[in-house]
Specification:
- The protein contains six helices and no strands.
- It is mainly alpha-helical.
- It has one domain.
- It is globular and about 50 Å long.
């Protein structure tokens, strides 16, 4: 069978995605540590970027803007490393939308323009969750992605199920532990991004003789 190889652009894209996720996770932890009385259960993630209440809001907002930029560029570069077919087109297009929306979350903090902030936050959550489910369809047995198929599906469904609970209860202010629920929406997408980046980066590369460095399998 033809070999699933990782080109330089795919590996560069994987690195950008991983860096984007890691720097954002670190920024959240750092800004949260400087936020008096911040609670993972009760406080929204976006509270960390609130320009009126978060002491290090600049760090958070710059970090999520950087996440959006790095994720967008990384997805474009790593496009050919994902399973071929309609699921790739749909899934990665949705992730590009989510990446742009993440950038806009940092541009429009929750207290600066609440309606726009809420809209772009939803455009991170919904396309992000749908993308993971769509991409899982293409991670068929016989491809290099088969080991991530179940994880992609489960993580996407956790995001979508949490979002389905979150949106209507937010409308009438009855969300149970809103900070926790928002993390159940967001963190699966971040975890998937890191796992996908590692997978893309570790895929076999062509050697100098045009062969492969590891075992062969079907493309993507």
């Amino acid at each position: 069978m033809a070999a699933a190889t990782s080109s330089g652009s795919v590996r560069a894209g994987a690195a950008l995605i991983a860096v984007g996720v890691v720097q954002f996770a670190v920024a959240m932890a750092v800004v949260q540590s400087a936020y008096p009385g911040y609670s993972d259960l009760q406080n929204y993630i976006s509270d960390l970027g609130n320009t009126a209440t978060s002491p290090w809001h600049v760090v958070f907002n710059v970090s999520i803007i950087l996440l959006g930029i790095l994720a967008f560029a990384g997805i474009v570069l790593a496009w050919n490393g994902f399973p071929r077919g309609g699921s790739r087109l749909v899934g990665l297009a949705l992730l590009l939308i989510a990446s742009v929306a993440a950038l806009l979350v940092g541009v429009f903090p929750e207290n600066v323009n609440p309606p726009v902030h809420d809209l772009v936050s939803l455009m991170v959550f919904l396309p992000g969750g749908l993308a993971l489910v769509a991409l899982s369809v293409g991670m068929r047995p016989g491809t290099s992605w088969r080991s991530l198929r179940s994880a992609s599906l489960v993580l996407g469904l956790v995001t979508l199920a949490s979002l389905a609970y979150y949106v209507p209860t937010q409308a009438n202010n009855t969300t149970w532990d809103p900070g926790l629920i928002e993390r159940l929406i967001t963190f699966p997408i971040l975890v998937w991004g890191f796992l996908a980046a590692v997978h893309l980066y570790r895929r076999p590369r062509p050697d100098e003789r045009g062969g492969l460095t590891t075992r062969t399998e079907q493309p993507a």
